[in-house]
Amino acid sequence: MKSNLSNASVKFIMSFGKMPLANKFLETNDFQSEKFYDMSVGFDEKLSLFQLIQSPDPEEMFDENYAFFSGTSKYMVSHFENFSDQIKERLKNISEKKKVIEIGCNDGIMLQNFSNKLEYDHLGIEPSKNVYAVAKEKNLNVINNFFTNELALNLTNYQKKTDVIYAANVICHIPDLNNLFNGIDELLNKKGVFIFEEPYLGDVIRLTSYDQIYDEHVYLFSLLSVDKISKLFDLEIIDAYPQITHGGSMRYVIGRKGEHIISDNFKKLLSKEFAQGLDKFDTYLRFKDNCESSKKRLIKMLNSFAEQNKKISGYAATSKSTTILNYCKIGKNLIKCIYDTTPIKINKFSPGMHIPIKHHQNFNITNSDISLLFGWNHKKEIFEKEKNYIKNGGIWISHISDLL
Ligand code: SAH
Ligand code: TMP
Question: Is pLDDT of 3 > 70?
Answer without folding.
Answer: no
